[in-house]
Amino acid sequence: MSKLEALPEDWNRALAVVAHPDDLEYGAASAIARWTQQGKTVTYCLVTSGEAGIDSMPPDECARVRRAEEVASAREVGVDTVEFLAHPDGLVEASLDLRRDLATAIRRHRPDVLISLNHRESFSFPGLNHADHRNTGWALLDAARDAANRWLFVGAGGEPWGGVRFAAFANSPQPTHGVDITNTIERGIASLEAHRAYLDALPEGTAGTDPDPFLRSMAEMVGPQLGVRYGVAFELIPL
Description:
The protein is of the alpha/beta class. The chain has 7 helices and 8 strands; from the N terminus they run ββαβαβαβαββαααβ.
């Protein structure tokens, strides 16, 4: 069985950037609960409001519901600040507009590390990864560099910030590091349960609609690679 290195935890502030409400909750939130329990500050930045995510609900109503669920979900793992950039759900592009908005967020929050979701073409199972996930991840990596250059996006978010050490992408098919979530997985499960309107609207048989067994089974596959019961894997990219 392959081994994962423990993700470095000698940092104080993280900015977690993903495309949709619920993206962080499929594993990463359990690690975030560990970090906030250690006294670290984690801020959420959502590129969209998930308004196209529930077929039976009009986008305006869906956005309100999913934003509220994300705020409640964040509180379950010790996160108090949740921002929404209002890019169009399902149509996210790795554009200059998105890079500017993310660079602005990085300059505003001045994180040591960035947390996100898999930006590769696929997960570890067949099928193409969602375009919003792919484009958000690549734009985030570019924005980390942009945020450090005072001559790019002048005036956006204040003074430049070049203090981001690395970006960590959860559930990547190319994992390099892992986090022991044995003591915080219950909080991660509660954070996904907070997305009940979204989960209830998923087609019958969709994986993850019952958070407890789904998240535990994922974490049990990663844990032995760290020598623990439950773990979550990340691809770490130095910046």
